[in-house]
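Today's session is about reading a structure prediction critically. Students often jump straight to the picture, but the first step is always the sequence itself: look for stretches that repeat, for charged clusters, for runs of hydrophobic residues. Only then move on to the predicted structure, which in these notes is written as discrete structure tokens rather than atom positions. Here is the chain we will use throughout the hour.
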Amino acid sequence: MKKQRKFCLYCGGPIIKKTEDQVLRDCCSICHCYFYNNPLPVVSTIVDDSRQILLVKRDRAPFKGHWCLPTGFAETGESIEAAALRELKEETGLKGRITRLLDVDSYKSRFYGDLLFLTFVAEKTGGKLSAGDDSAQARFWPIDEIPPLAFRSNRRALSAYIKSMKDYWAILDAIEHRDDKTLPTHKAANAMTRRLLNVILKNKEKMIDQWIEEMTTNPSTAEYRNAERRMLYNICDKIISQITLWLGNAYDIAHIKNFYIKLGVERKKSGAKISGVLSALSLIRKHIWDVALAQGALQKNLDLYMTFELQRRMTIFFDLATFYITRGYEK
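Below is the predicted structure for this chain, in token form.
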């Protein structure tokens, strides 16, 4: 059980319970200083290596002997991202780079009280896998063999991660299947597609943020300057997800037709001009290519065939989207 505060750390006076701001708090009976029991920040990290998740076996209470994500408390004076990477290094011996914040969850522990779990996704950048002081073991587990995890917040975050990756993994499986039966030239094109998909997945938040920023400043999309950010985010997120599925041959023309006709109808009802909607769509393509080029996804083993093939598939997607949005406006 979490120990209760008995004496004031400033004057040594006995602690009593007193209401402040409608909350019952610890208060010194002599100097009347209030003490605030805020949630403790806990960081966890998901490291995925070819659909194998890095887990550690706990070597101390609570849940000694159970498996969990690399997890620990943030320290004073460090950023929350630095805390996650420090715990990753201390518990597994691996160095990493944060790619995104995945989940935030509140949890009440009988050992520590209220906790705030922040789970990040990170990619391995170095180090050697080895169990740290708080861990009996550290190893990668295939996603279909994950053992019961100690913390509910770990289970929730890992479930969300696997769900978010299912479409992407299906695309890679489809590409790998085609690789087995195609010529070397096609294999090279598929390798480039995989690189582009990886860049889109890892940098999707950056692409969306850059797109939203330009949407609210570009003269061609002036009507979106006062649009709700959440609405813009959801539209861009959906379209980028569709592009990844399309590039992996997991999204067909019927899906594109239905979605963009409906989107055209909705944007027309909202009063948006067709010119602004089409400009917004073209800006999504622009930011995908900008980020891909900046990350070097299209600069390795580059040849004309692969460049034209990727450009051809991207062009078909956006031409179809443009056509069906316009159809939606005509309804």
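Discussion point for the tutorial: The longest helix spans residues 152-179.
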